[in-house]
């Protein structure tokens, strides 16, 4: 008996090897096998499939996919003061891959955990910044690393109220989170993208959106 397959894993899941076996949207892809390599918390699978190339020939391929669920992120902005509210927290994967201290400046974000994207991002904004937001504006949905990670990230934007700001020290302590807020003038945040001081992809995408199409778009832009 194998946890996650025949018996529940520590998150109560079974049948994890059946996910992705019945895909039928692309006639050039025929899934032949799905093997679970790890299901300690998220799920690492190895999928074997036959793929028909553009010239018509078929080949047998294998790919590993990391399934951590879908997520959501939000840019909090104050157009009156022309600021954005971001977070700072330690990110081990960035640290082991060359970031000087692993402390990344980011937009508030988190996994959906079974909630609708709008509900999830209201939850995450409150947990990570102390702010209660109204209905967030949908911006776009993006596969952040489609070569290996299944996650689809839902991007939002929402105004925040300076009065509602509480003391720093956010996140879920039981999950090891230790998050502080960083309020920045919008132009300074863009400069930090150029300098590399903001190196998180979702944050860069939302800041660029805010400048091109969002709340800080120049009125003369077409």
The computed structural class is alpha+beta
Report mean pLDDT, rounded to a whole number: 93
Order of helices and strands: EEEEEHEEHEEEHH
**Helix count, DSSP H or I runs of 4 or more residues:** 4
Rg over C-alpha atoms, rounded to the nearest angstrom = 20 Å
Which consecutive residue ranges, at least 5 long each, have pLDDT under 50?
A: none
Strand % is: 25-35%
Alpha-carbon distance between the two ends: 61 Å
Number of β-strand runs: 10
Overall 3D geometry?
Answer: globular
Q: Describe the largest sheet.
A: 7 strands, mixed
- In which range does the helix fraction lie? 10-25%
What characteristics describe this protein?
10 strands; 222 residues; seven-stranded mixed sheet; 4 helices; alpha+beta; three-stranded antiparallel sheet; 34% strand
What can you tell me about this protein's structure?
With 222 residues, this protein is α+β, with helices and mostly antiparallel strands. Helix content is 18%, strand content 34%. The protein has four helices and ten strands. It has helices at 92-96, 117-129, 186-195, 201-212, and strands at residues 29-38, 43-52, 58-67, 71-78, 83-90, 103-106, 108-111, 137-143, 152-159, 180-185. The strands form two sheets. Strands 4, 5, 6, 7, 8, 9 and 10 form a seven-stranded mixed β-sheet that branches. The chain has a three-stranded antiparallel β-sheet with strand order 1-2-3, with no helix packed on it. β2 (43-52) and β3 (58-67) form a beta hairpin. The radius of gyration is 20 Å and the shape is globular.
């Amino acid at each position: 008996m194998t946890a996650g397959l025949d018996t529940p894993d520590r998150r109560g899941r079974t049948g994890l090897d059946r996910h992705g076996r019945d895909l039928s949207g692309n006639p050039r892809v025929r899934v032949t096998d799905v093997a679970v390599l790890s299901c300690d918390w998220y799920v690492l699978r190895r999928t074997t499939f036959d793929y028909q190339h553009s010239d018509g020939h078929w080949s047998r391929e294998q790919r590993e996919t990391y399934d951590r669920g879908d997520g959501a992120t939000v840019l909090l902005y104050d157009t009156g003061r022309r600021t954005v509210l971001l977070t700072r927290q330690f990110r081990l994967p960035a640290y082991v891959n060359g970031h000087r201290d692993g402390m990344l400046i980011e937009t508030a974000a988190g996994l959906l955990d079974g909630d609708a994207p709008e509900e999830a991002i209201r939850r995450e904004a409150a947990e990570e910044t102390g702010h209660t937001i109204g209905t967030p504006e949908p911006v776009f949905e993006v596969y952040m690393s489609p070569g290996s990670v299944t996650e689809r990230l839902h991007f939002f934007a929402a105004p925040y109220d300076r009065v509602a700001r509480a003391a720093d020290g956010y996140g879920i302590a039981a999950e090891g989170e230790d998050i502080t807020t960083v309020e920045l003038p919008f132009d300074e945040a863009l400069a930090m993208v150029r300098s590399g001081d903001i190196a998180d992809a979702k944050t860069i995408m939302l800041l660029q959106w805010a400048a091109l199409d969002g709340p800080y778009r120049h009125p003369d832009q077409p």
